């Protein structure tokens, strides 16, 4: 039975409930009166149920689809303004004991280069990332209790936070590692992580078990219930995601919204982020083997409908997607993107030799961070390197209450401008700096509180004169 308050995976992600929702959406995808009712509710900015959201995703009325896109764009502006948070992944190790059919790190792959960064190598990689201008990292590692025990991950986090190089510093470390115990989540929290991220891959239990034939990840319930354990371990901010292309996209779209509803109802706070990766080519992985691929148009609509259904969540799109695709979905709900990414173990200090490939997937957007920052600003976005909320304790329900009330903008916009100014002073090319300084001057008008505006101006001047790390 479907029960949003149940701690059991197969009850808060009910297969029967998903099938009923999909049938309901198919039946009502051209029901103009119902779609108008759902859109009216969505305009209240309180979100939608999974069943209402799948009706919008399936909607076949072109004029209503345009309303959906326009509403998603407006909700994104209302909650997140024109800020885009920047981050980079850092792959620590690709040793893995799982048998995931879609990932080149699977244990049976004997020809991929297996690597694990030493602490000395991590220092060099992080310094290279700092020299690019990054302030926020997402740590990635395969599941291997011998090569990648929790003690190794904790040591890496400690090392990263301790690296101060020129004006660089990593101020927030997010972690994407395999499902683990409450005790280990507590250790990650004590180490000072930001968001704990774990992709479900697919919410269809039968498909999930087929795609994960061997290894600890085969356990659907243990994996799906990981976020509950993470929150029990004290981690306020958790990030969900599915890998679109593995399973039927309508099923997984409904499943991830049910997961968000469960966390909101059972734990009191929904996901801090939702990621929307698509399956990509990699060593010994051909995405064409999977027959659930989705078009760019469908992908864009998924983004728009998640934004409408879960207006408070941050949405992430990585360099898996092309520049053109990222540009489209930025308008429809994305609030975080990566830039200058490497998906290999190492590779920031110097490019990985082709014969020594350790990448998890091929990158579609290969531009440098400076090129991505310039591109964003030319479109009117404010690239943000801000980590203030995490460092000021505005996480979990404290962050969500400010966001839902619309008050977070009074912190986020000034902080975004100040961290952008740091980037422009320390790392930007002359052309990017010129565009950025003009954008900051223009964006100061968005700060309506006179006292805050004056303080921001003072901080910006201090940053220009060499000081760093101001925040509201």
CATH third-level topology of the largest domain? TIM Barrel
User: How many separate domains?
Assistant: 3
Average pLDDT score: 93
Number of helices: 20
Secondary structural class: alpha/beta
Give keywords.
472 residues; alpha/beta; TIM Barrel; 3 domains; 11 strands; 47% helix
Task: Provide a descriptive summary of the structure in words.
The protein has 472 residues and is of the alpha/beta class. The chain has 3 domains: 16-76, no CATH class; 80-366, Alpha-Beta Barrel (TIM Barrel), CATH 3.20.20; 406-464. It is built from 20 helices and 11 strands. Helix 15 runs parallel beside helix 19 (430-443) and helix 18 runs antiparallel to helix 19 (430-443). It is globular and about 60 Å long.
Could you give a quick summary of the protein structure above?
With 472 residues, the protein is of the alpha/beta class. It has 20 helices and eleven strands.
Topology of this structure?
Blueprint: H1 9-12, H2 15-28, H3 32-42, H4 50-58, H5 62-80, E1 83-93, H6 119-132, E2 136-141, H7 150-161, E3 164-165, E4 168-169, E5 172-176, H8 182-190, E6 195-197, H9 205-211, H10 220-224, H11 226-232, E7 237-241, H12 249-267, E8 273-275, H13 296-309, E9 314-317, H14 323-332, E10 336-338, H15 369-378, E11 382-384, H16 388-391, H17 396-404, H18 409-426, H19 430-443, H20 450-464
Parallel strand pairs: 1-2, 1-10, 1-11, 2-5, 6-7, 7-8, 8-9, 9-10
Antiparallel strand pairs: 3-4
Helix pairs in contact: 2-4, 2-12, 3-5, 4-12, 4-13, 5-13, 6-7, 13-14, 15-19, 18-19, 18-20
């Amino acid at each position: 039975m479907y029960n949003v308050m149940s701690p059991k995976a197969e009850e808060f992600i009910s297969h029967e409930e998903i099938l009923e929702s999909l049938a309901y959406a198919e039946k009502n995808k051209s029901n103009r009166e119902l779609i108008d009712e759902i859109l009216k509710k969505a305009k209240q900015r309180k979100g939608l149920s999974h069943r209402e959201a799948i009706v919008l995703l399936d909607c076949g009325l072109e004029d209503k689809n345009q309303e959906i896109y326009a509403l998603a764009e407006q909700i994104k502006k209302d909650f997140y303004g024109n800020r885009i948070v920047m981050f980079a992944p850092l792959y620590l190790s690709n040793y893995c004991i799982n048998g995931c059919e879609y990932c080149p790190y699977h244990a049976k792959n004997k020809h991929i280069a297996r690597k694990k960064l030493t602490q000395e190598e991590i220092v060099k990689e992080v310094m290279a990332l700092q020299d690019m201008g990054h302030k926020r990292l997402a740590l990635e590692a395969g599941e291997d209790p011998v090569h990648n025990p929790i003690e190794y991950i904790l040591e890496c986090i400690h090392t990263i936070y301790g690296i101060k190089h020129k004006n660089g510093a990593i101020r927030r470390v997010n972690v994407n590692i395999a499902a683990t115990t409450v005790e280990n989540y507590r250790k990650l929290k004590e180490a000072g992580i930001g968001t704990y991220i774990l992709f479900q891959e697919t919410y269809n239990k039968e498909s999930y078990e087929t795609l994960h034939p061997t290894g600890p990840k085969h356990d659907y319930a243990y994996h799906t219930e990981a976020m509950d354990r993470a929150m029990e371990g004290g981690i306020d901010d958790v990030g969900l995601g599915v890998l679109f292309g593995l399973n039927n996209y309508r099923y997984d779209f409904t499943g991830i919204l049910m997961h968000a509803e469960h966390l909101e109802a059972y734990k009191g706070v929904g996901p801090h982020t939702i990621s929307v990766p698509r399956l990509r080519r990699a060593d010994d992985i051909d995405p064409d083997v999977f027959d659930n691929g989705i078009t760019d148009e469908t992908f864009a609509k998924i983004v728009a409908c998640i934004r409408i259904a879960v207006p408070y969540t941050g949405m992430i799109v990585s360099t898996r997607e092309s520049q053109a695709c990222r540009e489209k979905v930025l308008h429809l709900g994305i609030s975080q993107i990566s830039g200058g990414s490497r998906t290999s173990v190492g590779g920031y200090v110097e490019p990985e030799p082709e014969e020594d490939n350790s990448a998890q997937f091929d990158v579609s957007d290969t531009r440098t961070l400076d090129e991505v920052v310039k591109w964003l600003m030319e479109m009117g976005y404010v690239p943000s390197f801000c980590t203030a909320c995490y460092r000021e304790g505005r996480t979990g329900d404290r962050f969500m209450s400010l966001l839902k009330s619309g008050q977070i903008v009074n912190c986020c916009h000034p902080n975004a401008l100040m961290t952008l100014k740091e980037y422009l002073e320390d790392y930007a090319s002359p052309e990017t700096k010129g565009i950025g300084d003009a954008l900051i001057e223009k964006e100061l008008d968005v700060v309506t509180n006179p006292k805050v505006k004056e303080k921001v101006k003072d901080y910006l001047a201090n940053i220009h004169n060499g000081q760093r790390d101001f925040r509201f």
